[in-house]
Automatic annotation (TrEMBL), chain A:
It comes from Benzoatithermus flavus. The lineage of its organism: Bacteria, Pseudomonadati, Pseudomonadota, Alphaproteobacteria, Geminicoccales. Belongs to the SCO1/2 family. This is SCO family protein. InterPro entries: SCO1/SenC, Thioredoxin-like_sf.
From TrEMBL, chain B:
Residues 496-608 form the Plastocyanin-like domain. Keywords: Metal-binding. InterPro entries: Cu-oxidase_C, Cu-oxidase_fam, Cu_oxidase_Cu_BS, Cupredoxin. This is Multicopper oxidase domain-containing protein.
Length: 198, 610
């Protein structure tokens, strides 16, 4: 029963988002082309159910941290999220002002905005950090494009294999790098701040 | 915020709920919520997506002449000896202070292509070549003239590492203390061999020659000399080491060759081993590039994690150039400038392989040179010097250097068992055309031996240390930990208790264990050459051993003997302007030299303590 209830809630949330208007039906139209050569402009939903274009709406001209996770990930994700929460504190007022954080689900078919909102609440997430889901094929495209994937299908299939990287970059400079999600928060904050000030 | 324990508990609880709610594919499909198999149907394009494939357009072959890197002349910089370890005993004369300015400029990879924007040392792609000599300490004045407002891949913050010199921490150019645009610093090199601070020469049996090969006597080191001759380094290079940006910075062009000469490898054909010298000692620096043909711009994928491969092979910054050679012996110094590609070089003439000899491996002279080779492998950052003898070849004979090693498409290592066609233009790199200048060419005679390896200590008494390389959640962990670029650098506490402390003057066996399948790792240890004494638990016989600075890991477990001598200088007290803490003089790293892996944390800090 628990399963059914959960399913019903999740599906309703996704359906709700998807029926907001004809142009918001997943898969109905191709996403607008990204103006970035690699980062796609896929449609994503944040934990509050708001829709964004990933590149144009969330990344363009910003300094960002991006990681992938899923709420049912047993070992790594909670630690990475906790770590990034510490990074958010270290960023202080810059978090949400000129440095933004995005955690994208690896289970978009299950993880609705409501579930992500619950997850975000667990960590007392402050403004400037969005938890994102979307149509599975669009999230998949995003994941592959920005280097949370492996060409080895066996390795790629295991979601946990994509949970340890944090991409950070300054889109204005088009400068990007990766660091360990379980790295020392002080380094992660310093690395991304250095790009913000470059 | 509430406690970590509680958060983890909540997350696990949530996870269980979700697991319990797992839906069947059918249920999801009904709702159109799953792309499911569609993801994998698209799998074929994943490789292309990751590699950002741009097809190479054919360019006119053999249009450009191979540029030879210009020799770097000395500048006249002064420096404060109090900033550098061992500078009190091995000061650099001002005539040996060389200037490196790191610049952005236009460069033509091929006459058919528009100019590309590259970074380099001193305004030539692949830099000048720096010739140094044992017994003559030198300094590098390094200035970062890159544009601070640079846009695109590559980070205009840079640090310059002389790979793999026996260098003090403060001059190692390792992944700390990078220069921002407009900044400069001076690095000092003793030009001594490892062991220079040991009790030397007559009386120390370690240096007694048992081969009969020691020059001018029976000792491999002289009292008050510059170290153990058997620890000589020969072909080295300088490259960028900015953490998390080394791959794009190297790819931009921040690498250059350094040749170290000594009393037998003299750089003069009339002395010592009489190896081909001057115009006949030719640096060949290899990098592969992706270039947009319409604009000439190089492209790079900053989101690559496994590796990055170019589709144009360049040598000394040119695509398929030619070089006229005289009918005599040449020394070609091959350097793989990465970022991820390995090569298997062959020399082709008339559909057949031309043989050659190999005199160095991993940048160090072999004890016994290898003759009559048909191919040679070069992993990233490896250097091998080969001797090709064109004697007796008729004018206009053409010999083409090609690559036959096929990489896996994502750049993570060799596609073992596959072989590229050396006569396919895509795999051809350089054409050598014989052209006599009518001189009376001397016959070249390859020495039978160079220098033997230093003997091993009593292995039962040396400390062993395990480094296990694992892919963890998409990043690279060493012994379960991720490298911290900031640790040991800004964090004063870590100076007191750094990870992996080795004792100065000790020897250790490091086991490098990479068990993950399908991954190749050219592992590099700063500061010290090591001898591989066992592979996968099987001893390597003395005759097959060598001194390496790159260890080829392919699902393998290598036992490497290392010695940690001379540094840190025990009586060094910095009084100069460079802020050193007393305990921070022996800090080095080990890292994968597939620099894309390095940028994703495949690096570990270790420290020598007196």
């Amino acid at each position: 029963m628990q399963r059914r209830m959960f399913f019903a809630t999740g599906a309703a949330a996704l359906a709700g988002a998807a029926t907001g208007g004809a142009d918001r039906v997943w898969g109905a139209s191709a996403p607008a082309a990204s103006t970035h050569s690699i980062i796609p402009n896929v449609r994503v939903l944040d934990q509050d159910g708001r829709e964004h274009r990933f590149y144009d709406g969330l990344v363009k001209d910003r300094v960002v941290l991006i990681n992938f996770f899923y709420t049912s990930c047993g070992e790594t994700c909670p630690l990475v999220t906790e770590n990034l929460r510490a990074v958010q504190d270290l960023l202080g007022e810059r978090a949400g002002r000129d440095i933004f954080m995005y955690s994208v689900t690896l289970q978009p078919e299950l993880e609705t905005p409501a579930i992500l909102a619950d997850y975000a609440a667990l960590w007392d997430i402050r403004p400037g950090w969005k938890f994102l889901t979307g149509a599975p094929d669009e999230i998949e495209r995003l994941r592959r494009a920005i280097g949370f994937a492996s060409a080895d299908p066996t390795y790629d299939r295991i979601k946990d294999n994509h949970t340890g990287i944090v991409r950070y970059g300054n889109d204005r400079l088009d400068r990007w790098a990766g660091t360990a999600g379980l790295g020392r928060p002080a380094w992660i904050a310093k690395a991304v701040t250095a790009l913000a000030e470059a | 915020m509430f406690g970590l324990d509680r958060q983890v508990a909540r997350a696990l609880e949530l996870g269980k709920e979700l697991d319990a709610a797992k839906l069947s594919r059918r249920e999801l499909a009904k709702l159109g919520l799953v792309a499911g198999s569609a993801h994998w149907a698209k799998g074929a394009s994943l490789r292309a997506a990751l590699a950002q494939t741009v097809p190479a357009i054919p360019l006119t072959p053999w249009r450009d002449e191979l540029p030879i890197p210009p020799r770097l002349g000395a500048g006249g910089y002064s420096y404060n000896p109090a900033d550098h370890q061992w500078c009190d005993r091995y000061p650099a004369q001002s005539a040996q202070c060389y200037e490196l300015r790191i610049r952005e400029h236009g460069h033509s990879f091929h006459k058919d292509l528009p100019q590309s924007t590259v970074w380099s040392f001193n305004g030539t792609f692949g830099g000048p070549v720096l010739d140094v000599r044992y017994g003559q300490p030198f300094c590098l004045y390094i200035e970062n003239d890159l544009p601070a407002d640079h846009v695109g891949y590559g980070n205009p913050e840079t640090t310059s590492h002389l790979h793999n010199f026996h260098t003090a921490t403060e001059s190692d150019g390792g992944p700390w203390n990078w220069l921002k645009p407009g900044e400069h610093r001076i690095q000092h090199y003793t030009m001594c061999r490892a062991g220079f601070s040991d009790p030397q020469g007559a009386g120390n049996p370690y240096y007694r020659d048992t081969t009969g090969l020691a020059p001018g006597g029976t000792w491999w080191a002289q009292d008050g000399g510059d170290g153990d001759l058997r620890e000589t380094l020969t072909t080295l290079f300088i490259h960028d080491h900015r953490p998390e940006f080394t791959a794009p910075n190297l790819y931009k062009g921040l690498f250059m060759m350094v040749r170290a000469f000594d009393q037998q490898d003299t750089g003069d054909e009339s002395t010592g081993w009489k190896l081909p010298s001057g115009d006949y000692d030719v640096p060949l620096l290899f990098q592969d590039k992706r270039i947009v043909p319409d604009t000439g711009e190089m492209t790079y994928n900053q989101f690559a994690v496994d590796g990055f491969l170019g589709n144009y092979l360049t040598v000394n910054g040119k695509i398929r150039p030619y070089l006229e050679v005289e009918p005599r012996a040449y020394r070609f110094r091959l350097l793989n400038g990465g970022p991820s590609r390995f090569y298997r070089f062959v020399l082709r003439a008339g559909g057949r392989n031309v043989t050659f000899a190999q005199i160095t491996e991993s940048g160090n002279l072999l004890y016994v040179p290898r003759r009559n080779l048909q191919e040679i492998d070069l992993w990233v950052a490896e250097r091998s010097d080969i001797i090709v003898d064109f004697s007796g070849m008729a004018d206009r004979t053409e010999i083409i250097m090609s690559n036959t090693l096929k990489m896996r498409d994502d750049g993570r290592g060799e596609d073992v068992g596959k072989r590229l066609n050396p006569d396919d233009p895509a795999n051809q790199i350089l054409k050598l055309v014989v052209k006599s200048k009518g001189r009376n060419y001397p016959r070249f005679s390859l020495p039978n031996y160079f220098r033997p390896l230093p003997p091993l200590p009593d292995l039962s008494k040396v400390r062993r240390r395990l480094f296990k390389f694992e892919r963890k959640n998409g990043m690279w962990a060493i012994n379960g930990r991720f490298w911290d670029p900031d640790l040991d650098h800004a964090n004063a506490a870590s100076h007191i208790d750094p990870p992996h402390v080795v004792a100065r003057d000790s020897a250790e066996i490091w086991t490098l264990d990479s068990s993950s399948g399908g991954w190749d790792h050219p592992m590099h240890i700063h500061f010290e050459e090591g001898q591989i004494i066992a592979r996968n638990g099987v001893s390597i016989p003395a005759a097959s051993r060598h001194r390496y600075d790159i260890y080829r890991l392919r699902q393998s477990r290598l036992d490497v003997l290392l010695r940690f001598r001379d540094f840190p200088q025990t009586d060094f007290r910095s009084t100069g302007a460079v802020p050193h803490t007393r305990d921070d003089h022996g800090r080095y790293v080990m890292h994968c030299h597939n620099v894309v892996h390095e940028d994703h944390a495949m690096m570990v800090t270790w420290t020598i303590r007196a």
